[in-house]
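testing teh design pipeline on a random one, pls ignore if ur not involved
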């Protein structure tokens, strides 16, 4: 029953697929005592968090490029599905990743950025009607 640690060690060396680890671990968890479950679950969680670190770095770079593109095209009509397609994600997954990294939904972020740009332009003594037409 103590094979979970060995599987995790082998997976770190690239010998086993992550899905196989999860499947074998779930089967083993059924037959473990409570103490064994707590110890092995902690080890599995550490491995999962390490694996997620690589994915998180990819997500961060993609979302950063999205944020840069949003700032470039702030006066245009911006839609989440267009950015999701560019990142090769479904719209649902893109929105989930965006919320997780930025802390707010995609359209709320767009609205906030447009408001910030409009506020800056108003502080530069531009006419309200001109600013309103830029950031509708």
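output:
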């Amino acid at each position: 029953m103590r094979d979970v640690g060995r599987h995790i060690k082998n997976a770190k060396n690239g010998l086993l697929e992550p899905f196989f680890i999860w499947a074998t671990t779930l089967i083993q968890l059924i037959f473990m005592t409570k103490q064994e479950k707590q110890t092995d679950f902690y080890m599995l969680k550490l491995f999962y968090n390490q694996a997620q670190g690589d994915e998180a770095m990819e997500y961060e770079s993609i979302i950063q490029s999205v944020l840069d593109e949003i700032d470039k095209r702030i006066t245009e009509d911006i839609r989440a599905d267009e950015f999701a397609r560019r990142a090769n994600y479904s719209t649902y997954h893109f929105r989930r990743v965006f919320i997780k990294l930025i802390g707010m939904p995609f359209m709320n972020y767009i609205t906030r950025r447009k408001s910030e740009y409009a506020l800056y332009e108003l502080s530069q003594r531009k006419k309200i009607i001109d600013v309103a037409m830029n950031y509708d």
